[in-house]
Structure formats: structure tokens, C-alpha cells
Amino acid sequence: MKSQALAIGKLGILGIATLVFLVGCGGGTSQPFNNQSQLPSGSNPTPAITTISPNSNVAGAAAFTLTINGTNFVSASMVNFGGTTVATTFVSSAQLTAAIPASSIVMVGTATVIVSNPPPGGGASNTMNFAINSEAILPTISFLDPTCAPVGAQAFTLAVFGSNFLPSSVVKWNGNDRPTTFISSSQLTAQIPGSDTAVTGMAGITVFNPPPGGGTSNSSALTISTGGVNPQSVAVDPSGKFAYVADAGCAGSSVLSMYTISASTGVLTSIGSLLTRDQDVPYSLAVHPSGKFVYLGNSGSRDDVGQVSMYSLNATTGALTSIGYVNAFIDPLSLAVHPSGKFAYVTNGYTSQFGKFASVIDIYTIDATTGVLSGVGETTAGLSTSIPTSIAIDPSGKVAYVANSGSDSVSMYTINAITGDLTFLGSIAAQSSPNSIAIHPSGKFAYVANSGSNDVSMYSIDNTRGTLTFLGSIAAQSSPNSIAIHPSGKFAYVTNSGSNDVSMFSIDAATGALTLIGTIGT
User: Fold this and answer.
1) CA–CA separation, 319 vs 155, rounded Å?
2) Residue 198 located in a structural domain
3) How far, CA to CA in Å, does 75 sit from each of 52, 69, 87, 91, 120?
4) Residues 6+ apart with CB under 8 A from 308
5) Maximum Cα–Cα distance for the chain, whole Å?
6) Do 104 and 176 fall within a single domain?
7) What is the SS3 assignment for 292?
8) Number of domains in the chain
9) Domain assignment present for 451
10) What is the pLDDT of residues 137-187, one digit of tens each?
């Protein structure tokens, strides 16, 4: 016993602790806590900082409040700013605020921001740098999206891109605050009411950062124009009361213009317009057979998806209200709604940087109550070397026809009345660059405008199979790119982009043959 006591005495306190550890652990080695789940009950976690706001100020500025965002903050967390612990307020486990005195930002340079949690556990966070500048760093606007709006446009969302934006930044329209959402330090969005576009002219858009170190950005102009630019597509509702025109707009800002139609004269009267999704070109427009909904195909960029925008239609006023959008493939060139109102079809075609075609027909079902589209499938049958520029459905709803400008052909598909699925029937040759196809109201004939050969091809339709038989062609003017058939079935109209006019034809009810009856300038 004496020898044992003597040995312990020689070991000392540290030796005893070591001995106890070795005995208790069976001679093993210690394992440190390597994640928060291993912390003993009641221990504090290690904090982490993700962002601070603001992240800069001007030397000599007044005291201000710093917001620290992160994780694992506790009620006893403390903020250290530039080496000095400052008064800290616990907001949540993800946010703290700190009162930064004026004395902490006297000199130009960089102050470090660290959060510490006390024992047990706890520890110091990562470090964030706070810039103390010799002068204010103002927000800067690089560009707007959109850059223009039509006079009388409905409310829309304006995206502002630039630098030095803060969560507290405010977008101003001609000096007046607009509800602003912070996306990132390089992007804000603002809600613009319809009253801001009541008259034509220029609106000055600025961004204001509040103190400390804030100020007003450069001004960027947004044009309020008299109407849309570069009209791409027109559609009339089934009642014949309203017409809608899709315009490419300015700088990629697409516009959907709305009109009433005089029952006696046919004259259009504007009832306003709205900005659509900001894609390249709004190629195609269609009205649901019920007259309750309108669909607009917006093309995407080379590698971006396009969209089909959806709108509800007010049967009394003709006004449209957005009900959202669905993605299409890439380049929605044409859109058609099935006569039953149950399905919609969108043709997509683009040429990639490798010179290959990527062509798809998207198939959607339509909710009869809401008008919302739901993608149910697609087909590439008959489109391997094609650019499907136009789709039309026969009045019975049994067959769909697609004009393919890439392969100078017309593809034919049967339609499943239950699912809306398409089954490829085959193709028939067309003339050069077929851009548009239309079906006669009787379902007996089809007509294709060919921009490459400056003519219109005529086809008969097999009532049993739905296949086409070529009947011949008739000359049009320069670059015919669209064709429409009068509801009576007596006349056809062809727009000619090369000669800036419209060709008018009579239609033989028995043979389907076209006869030119004149042209009119546009």
C-alpha cells in the first residue's frame, strides 16, 4: 500500500487523470466530437455565418444595425466586429442583429465579423469581411427586363439587373417607390401597376439603397409605347366579339394586345394590352372553343425551353387574365386546340449549333374548368429532319396535319379521342418551305402556303383514313407565310411577307380548287 501511494504521489494530478482515462477507455484513444449530433445534451452548437447585411459602409458614418444570417445561433450568441464584442440581439437560430457603434468604422479598411457561442460546446464561427470604404458604394443598374411596355398595359413585374443591391433596396418608378423583392445582390423585381403605363413616354427607373452607405443608382429608361411591335399571330374568339394579337414587342418584351370587334363594320377597337412572358417571339395564338381561355406559344432561346402562356377570357369585356404557363420543348412555332376543347398541341422546332434539327409535338390535356394545360406526352414521329412550322386539326377532331418546312412535307396523325395521343399516318410532299396549313370547314380539303415556291398547295382529304392527296398548286405573291379559311368555306386568305400584301382566293365547293380573286396591300 505504501509503495502504491508513493507511486501515485509521483504521478501527480496530471498522471492520475491520464491513468483514469486509460483505465476507463480500456487503453483506447479519445474520439473528438465531429458533428453537432455528437454533442452532449445541453451543449451549444458551433455557429456559422452565411451572409451579413449590409456588407459595407463608409468610414466616419453613424452607428448602424448589422444583420447576421446563418445557422446554430443561440440566445447567448455574441457578435465580434473588428475585434470588439458588440451588443447582440438574438432573433432566431438563423439570425442575429448587432449594434455597430460609429467608433468601429472610423478607419478605411476591412472589419471581421465573427459569432461566438459560449460553453458548454459552442465556439467561434467562420469569418465574414465587412468593407469600410472611403466613399459610398452606390447601387448600379445594368439593364431592365422588360425595357418597354405598351400604353395601358396591365400590371406587370419588372426585373432590374445590376450590382450592389441589398435586401433593403427599393426600385423607384419616376422617383416613386414600388413594391420590391430582393433576389440577389445583382437582381431585384418590382411590381408595376397598370396606372404607371397610362400614357406614352419614358419612365426613369432607379434603385435606392437606404443608409448607411446608401444612395441612388443611375437611371435606366423604360419606354411606354403606343402599342405592340412586329405582330406575329392573330386569333378571334368563337363569338366573334374579340380579337387578340401577339407582338414580338421591343428588346424581346412580348405584348398581347386585346381588341373588340364591331359586329357591323368589323373594325377593331383596342381594350388594352399586357406583357407576356419575356421570351424571344410569341409565335402562335389560339382561343379555346368554349371562348373561355386563350393560349400563347412563346419561343425560348437556343438552349432554353419555350412556354405556353395561359389566360382566362372575360366573356363580357374580352379582357385576359394570366393563369400561368407550362413549359414546351424549345421553340413553340404553332399551337392548335382540339375541337372538343380537351387537348392542345404545340409544334416545336429549332436548328442547333451543330446543324441538326430537334423537332417535337407536345401534347397537353385541358382542364375544362380552369383552362390549365397539363403535359401528357410528345411525339417526334415523322419529324426527324423537319421544322414543324404549323399544325391544324380537321373539324371532326380525328386527324392532325403538320406542315414541315425543313423537309418540305406534310405529316399526318390520327388522334386518340380518349387520350389525345397522336399516331403517325405518314407524310406527303409539299412545295418548298411550307409555312402554314389550314383545313376547310367541310373537312374535305387542306391548303398549304409555301414560302419557298411562292404558291399554295391544295389537297383532298380521305374521309375514312384522313390521308391527303395532292390536287395541284396555285401561285401566290412573294413569300406566302400564313393561310386562313373563311368560316363559310367560300374564301381563302394568304399573307405574303415578301410583297406586303394579302392574296384572296375563292374556293370551289365541289373540287376544293382555289381561284385568285385579287390582292390587297397591308
Assistant:
1) 13
2) yes
3) 18, 14, 12, 8, 14
4) 295, 296, 297, 298, 325, 326, 328, 332, 335, 344, 346, 364, 373
5) 129
6) no
7) coil
8) 4
9) yes
10) 789 999 898 888 877 777 888 999 999 898 889 999 999 999 999 988 899
* CATH number of the domain enclosing 217: 2.60.40.10
* Domain assignment present for 55: yes
Residues 433 and 459 in one domain: yes
Grid look-up 432566431 returns: 92
The C-alpha cell that represents 153 in the structure block: 398595359
Alpha-carbon distance values, 36 to 29, 69, 73, 202, 321 (Å): 21, 19, 13, 56, 50
Residue 66: pLDDT band (50, 70, 90) is very high
Residues 125 and 196 reside in one and the same domain: no
The three-point CA angle 118-122-126 to 5° equals: 110
Looking at the chain, how many residues does it have? 522
- Give the three cell numbers for residue 336: 392548335
Neighbours of 48 (CB within 10 A): 12
Count the Cβ atoms, other than its own, within 10 Å of residue 114. 19
> Using only C-alpha atoms, what is the Rg of the chain?
34
How wide is the angle at C-alpha 175 spanned by C-alphas 145 and 58, nearest 5°? Answer: 90
pLDDT for 253 equals 60
How many C-beta atoms surround the C-beta of residue 372 within 10 A? 16
188 domain-assigned? yes
